[in-house]
Each structure stands twice: as C-alpha cells, then as structure tokens.
C-alpha cells in the first residue's frame, strides 16, 4: 500500500495506539490479556533491533549508539531474541 503524506506525518505512537485498539477489539469478549506490558515490549523490541541492525549493516557498536544503549546490553538483547549473528 503506498504511503500518503498524512501517513508520514503520524508519530509512531499513533500506530502503536491503533494496533492496541485492534488487539483489544479482536479479543471479542475473551479473557483479558495477562502481562500485557511485557508482551508489548517483546513485540516491539525484536523488530526494532532487527531494523536498526539492518540499517547499521550489522555494526553492533553503531546500532547500540543509535538505540542509546550500551553495546553489551545490545548483545544481551540480541541473544535473548536469537538475533546474534
């Protein structure tokens, strides 16, 4: 789907909010989710790490700098998600 000017102007939080709205609607009366905070972090963190690593061409030092975290922390997160290369 092509992006429009209005799509580009939206902050990331807009899309996160819309995704959460769809998620809650999809529950359709089922039991409420458990540990939602951790679930959302895991769902966001892995693709974030993947995209930043791709953007930095696999350079972990550059990726850690872009993320604002220590390289050791990045390496631990990569192991946790089986993304270590």
Automatic annotation (TrEMBL):
<dbReference type="GO" id="GO:0043565">
    <property type="term" value="F:sequence-specific DNA binding"/>
</dbReference>
<feature type="domain" description="DNA binding HTH">
    <location>
        <begin position="41"/>
        <end position="81"/>
    </location>
</feature>
<dbReference type="Pfam" id="PF02954">
    <property type="entry name" value="HTH_8"/>
</dbReference>
<dbReference type="InterPro" id="IPR002197">
    <property type="entry name" value="HTH_Fis"/>
</dbReference>
<dbReference type="InterPro" id="IPR005412">
    <property type="entry name" value="Fis_DNA-bd"/>
</dbReference>
<dbReference type="InterPro" id="IPR050207">
    <property type="entry name" value="Trans_regulatory_Fis"/>
</dbReference>
<dbReference type="InterPro" id="IPR009057">
    <property type="entry name" value="Homeodomain-like_sf"/>
</dbReference>
<protein>
    <recommendedName>
        <fullName>Putative Fis-like DNA-binding protein</fullName>
    </recommendedName>
</protein>
<keyword id="KW-0238">DNA-binding</keyword>
<dbReference type="GO" id="GO:0006355">
    <property type="term" value="P:regulation of DNA-templated transcription"/>
</dbReference>
<comment type="similarity">
    <text>Belongs to the transcriptional regulatory Fis family.</text>
</comment>
């Amino acid at each position: 789907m092509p992006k429009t000017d209005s799509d580009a102007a939206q902050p990331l939080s807009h899309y996160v909010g819309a995704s959460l709205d769809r998620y809650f609607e999809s529950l359709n009366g089922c039991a409420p989710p458990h540990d939602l905070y951790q679930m959302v972090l895991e769902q966001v963190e892995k693709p974030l790490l993947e995209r930043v690593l791709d953007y930095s061409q696999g350079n972990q030092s550059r990726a850690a700098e872009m993320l604002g975290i220590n390289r050791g922390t990045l390496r631990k997160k990569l192991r946790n998600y089986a993304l270590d290369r």
